[in-house]
Design a protein that fits this description.
The chain has one domain: Ferritin, core subunit, four-helix bundle (Ferritin). It is 69% helix and 2% strand. A two-stranded parallel sheet has the order 1-2. Helix 3 runs antiparallel to helix 4. GO terms for molecular function: tRNA 2-(methylsulfanyl)-N(6)-isopentenyladenosine(37) hydroxylase activity. InterPro entries: Ferritin-like, Ferritin-like_SF, tRNA-Hydrxlase_MiaE. It holds the Pfam family MiaE.
Length: 211
């Protein structure tokens, strides 16, 4: 199993506006059933997003190559999580998604090429936050799940970098300002109280979290 390069991990963590709160980690350890079910769903979503981007931008060979690889890897991860669910006697079921992606997507501009750049930045934040949460969760999990989540760090870190590199390439101007816009929204999504526990949810609400 290959671990993520420490320099790559440090760069990724610096890109994010904040760490995952300890209260979310406590809830994740307690709710590993929903953690895994929602993780399974998110791997499908990640593959779908990459494939959609391939169809929307078929004239960009580097986008096609990177998104094709990303989609394949995410589907493999989906299969791996599905096996873990089955092994643990859990059944995948439809469930309400978190607010996280919606809070970022609402800021995406309406027309290309600006929309394309924004979608790539959103992808970078999603992959970076996923990697950070795998990293934070590992010390709190059983050996099987800790080993699996450690194995995901390298690919998630690369996905983050792929999205960000493409955003920088296709933007007509420096993307620091757009990153700052999404960074603020991402921080709010992670640090504000959230009544729904999911892999990307915020601080568990004091009144408890819903299924």
């Amino acid at each position: 199993m290959q671990a993520v390069d420490p320099k790559d991990l440090a760069e990724l963590l610096a890109f994010l506006p904040c760490e995952t709160p300890d209260s979310w980690l406590d809830e994740a350890v307690r709710r590993q059933d929903m953690l895994l079910i929602n993780h399974c769903y998110l791997e499908k979503c990640a593959a779908r997003s990459a494939i959609n981007m391939m169809f929307r931008y078929p004239d960009k060979p580097d986008v096609l190559a990177k998104m094709s690889r990303l989609a394949r890897e995410e589907l493999v991860h989906f299969e791996q999580v599905s096996k873990i669910l089955k092994k643990r006697g859990l059944t995948y079921r439809p469930h309400r998604p978190s607010r996280y992606v919606g809070q970022l997507q609402v800021l995406v501009r309406n027309k290309d090429p600006e929309r394309f750049v924004d979608q790539l930045i959103v992808g970078a934040f999603i992959e970076a936050r996923s990697c950070e949460r795998f990293y934070r969760l590992v010390p709190h999990l059983d050996d099987e799940l800790a080993k699996f989540y450690t194995s995901l760090l390298k690919s998630e870190a690369r996905h983050y970098k792929d999205y960000l590199t493409l955003a920088e390439k296709y933007a007509a101007e420096p993307i620091a300002e757009r990153i700052a816009v999404f960074r603020e929204a991402e921080e709010n999504a992670i640090l504000s109280e959230d009544g729904l526990f999911r892999f990307h949810s915020g601080v568990p609400a004091a009144s408890g979290v819903r299924v």
